[in-house]
Fold this protein.
Amino acid sequence: MTREPGEPTVTSSRPADASGRGRRSRRLSSYGVLLVSLAALGGLYAAVAPSGNAANRLPGVGAQTVSYGRQLYEVSCASCHGLNAEGGSNAPSLIGVGAAAVDFQVGTGRMPAATHQAAEEPRKPPRFSQDQIHALAAYVASLAPGPAIPSDLNYQATDPALGGDLFRTNCAACHNAIGSGGDLTYGAYAPSLSQATPTQIYEAMLTGPEQMPPFSNSQLSSREKLSIINYLMTTRNEANPGGNGLGRIGPIPEGAVGWIAGIGLLVGVTVWIGARA
């Protein structure tokens, strides 16, 4: 359309203004969605990320204890288990193993391991004090939930006879009928339980160290675990009515003594009688 000379130019600003407002609105909406997404992501991370403060998971344990445990961990454990307990090529992850596993492994001297073959190492004196062990356990427990260190183990109130039946059913195949331990197949070894404390025995049933399977409460209830402990503690203090117990490791040493000493004595007596005749 041709504009006549002298006719004023008329422009319509409404469509341009509407277009500008639409672009700004879409931009603000995009920023809002981004902020909401970041907030949701931060909340999700806070909910599932490992916490460095065991006070949220362990009643009575403060942040100072956890910090001390982390220092001990970085010096003595991180070279194998990773700086953040994620595990490595020669050691498993410790995230989720709980305080009970740390208390057992470190309290029995198995950890820190002198070599990477920790399962083959015997029980040794612990390298840490009990306070240091608890600090290490508190730090590992702060990473993720896991079995706690048992307390108030009133095993004396349970039935040792029931404990003996349960032990022979679930444990004697490896640990011997009275917990003396011994060699297993493929180079494995079941340790003797003669030096284990009630707490350590309970922790072993909870966590399943090395080749031992863990026993959940659906397999062995807390009272049944305590009954097993009562049985083991009772056998330590029992007298041997038949004479010397020969280590209480079963019929093999008794049979050996019977054949070597008993039959040997009979042969000697027979030879002596024959010589005199």
Remarks:
- Residues 54-143 form a domain with the Cytochrome Bc1 Complex; Chain D, domain 2 fold (CATH 1.10.760.10).
- The first helix runs from residue 14 to 48.
- The chain has a mean pLDDT of 80.
